[in-house]
Amino acid sequence: MGDDLDAATEQQISTWRTYVSRREAIDGRDVDELEDHLRDEIGRLAASGLDADEAFLVAVKRLGGLDDLSREFAREHSERLWKQLMLADEPAAPRAGGLALAVGLAIGAAIAVKLPALFGIDFADPGDFYPRFLALLILPFVAAYFLVRRRASAATVLVVAAPFVLAAVLMAVYPFQPDAATLVLASAHCAVGLWLVIGIGYVDGRVRSSRARMDFLRFTGEWVVYLALIALGGGVLIALTMGVFAAIGMDAALFVQEWMVPCGVAGAVVVAAWLVEAKQSVIENIAPVLTKLFTPLFTLLLLAFIVAGVVQGFSTASGVEVFGQRDLLILFDVVLVVVVGLLLYAQSARDPLAPPSWFDRMQLVLVAAAIVVDLMVLVAMIGRIAEWGASPNKLASLGLNVILLANLAGAAWLQLRFAMRRAPLERLERWQTGFLPVYLAWAAVVVVVFPPAFGYV
Amino acid sequence: MKIGKDLVAAAATPMVLGILADGESYGYAILQRVGELSGGELEWSDGMLYPLLHRLERLGHVESSWGASPSGRPRKHYRLSAEGRAAFAEQRRQWSVVSKALQQVWQGREGGTDLFGAPALGGA
């Protein structure tokens, strides 16, 4: 460097650099910035008569305690903290405690799922017990994991527990008819809604913070990845179990269906949540790769679909014929949900300070394509509702579609502004995290209002 | 006199925005300027400035670019964006309201007109 510092001070500075670089929350460029500061300060102190050694010590001291500093950086750059999620005040011990807690709760969830067997209710029974209560048997254990780990205040525990109790009461008392569509809807939306409630526990009650919400979104993305990995392993385990027992002439199907699958799913949900927290540095390298890989592919899927839809629309008498079947409409809802999930996951793993790149422009294309698809689906849905009348399934899809359209429209606008360097990424982030309460509210409507409104059919 | 922690935290953002309103600058120079302007009374540990600058950057109030110091080291420069200018004007309005109100409260009490001179805020 061009400064006239002696070799000993240079050595001290490089040791200091190594030491500071070890903090996850402070990245290489920040250390450069701090080092520039440190050298200026050393220069000034030395000029005022301190010897090099003293100048170094005073300058380092003035920078502030490393714990405080890295906590402050962590608050601002929570995406980097991915490896040690709880800020620096959390002592190192809970990591081991986290494992014991997670294993305990996973076993608890597995037992809870099989508890109804005591009352003669089997997992594969055609009755409506599991559709009503499956999420309610598993998700409280995930919520409990975060509430315990975060040492949540009584108020936070209450805020998280109340929706669980409410959902349990509603699912227990609503007189659903056999094979009710509203039960399937309520059960799915109940799971999504309660997952968002778990988020309140995950962020330890800091629900107003956009950064905290983003952390939860990132957590959700990682959790899905881990759950998928566990499911793959589980699939192999099931196939082998069936295989080896079949080889000695025993049929393990009943055991697999009644014990392995339900207990495995329940345990995996909790273990995946723990894994996300404990093994962050492993997955940290996967998230950007996955999103970079699948964003272009999903963009292609949507573009191909738009082209196919237009061609199909021209070749058949009515343009909406593509969406003739209800199952296909729901499929497109799933596609749009996955696209929004992909966007959120990519965004949550992104460095908010990085300038717009090709990837952001690619995302813009993805969002634009998703909007077109959403509009096509919306037109088809409204057509179907006008023709056949409303049904719970159609209205639930319609509502979800309208919400996704609003989300995508706003995201497209902000993404465009960001790509043109007119707005900071933070706007887009706030927009996306601002939608979490909307999703929660919609899930609540489908769980609470839909069944009575449609006569529990 | 040492100014209380909360007050320092509250004053830091308008202070930094105001200094950047005078033109592009970098971390160390900003802190030097804070020291000059407050006669050394408004102080926080040096390192804390950087997370604050990064927050302002994320919010779009400032823009940054890497350049070099006269001796050739990498140095990160910050300047106010149009949005930052608006935020600064807004902060300034708010602070002047607070300051005016405080002045009025203190008027007639020992004739003190020094804005931050109140012992209650000073701490010891």
Keywords:
heterodimer; A: 457 residues; mainly alpha; 77% helix; globular; B: 124 residues; alpha+beta; 3-stranded antiparallel beta sheet; disordered C terminus
Summarize the structure.
With 457 residues, chain A is mainly α. In chain A, 77% of the residues lie in helices and 0% in strands. Chain B has a 3-stranded antiparallel beta sheet.
Q: If you had to describe this structure to a student in words, what would you say it looks like?
A:
- The complex is a heterodimer of chains A (457) and B (124).
- Chain A is mainly α and 457 residues long.
- Chain A folds into three domains: 7-76; 91-282, no CATH class; 285-423, no CATH class.
- Chain A has 18 helices and no strands.
- The relative contact order of chain A is 0.09.
- With 124 residues, chain B is α+β, with helices and mostly antiparallel strands.
- Chain B has one domain (5-122): Orthogonal Bundle (Arc Repressor Mutant, subunit A), CATH 1.10.10.
- Chain B has a three-stranded antiparallel β-sheet with strand order 1-3-2.
- In chain B, helix 1 packs across helix 4 (82-106).
- The longest helix of chain B has 25 residues, at 82-106.
- Chain B is globular, with a radius of gyration of 16 Å.
- The chains are: A mainly alpha (457), B alpha+beta (124).
- The A-B interface holds A 1-3, 29-30, 32-37, 39-41, 62-65, 68-69, 72-73, 75-77, 352-353, 423-427 and B 26-28, 31, 44-48, 50-51, 54-55, 57-60, 66, 69-76, 83.
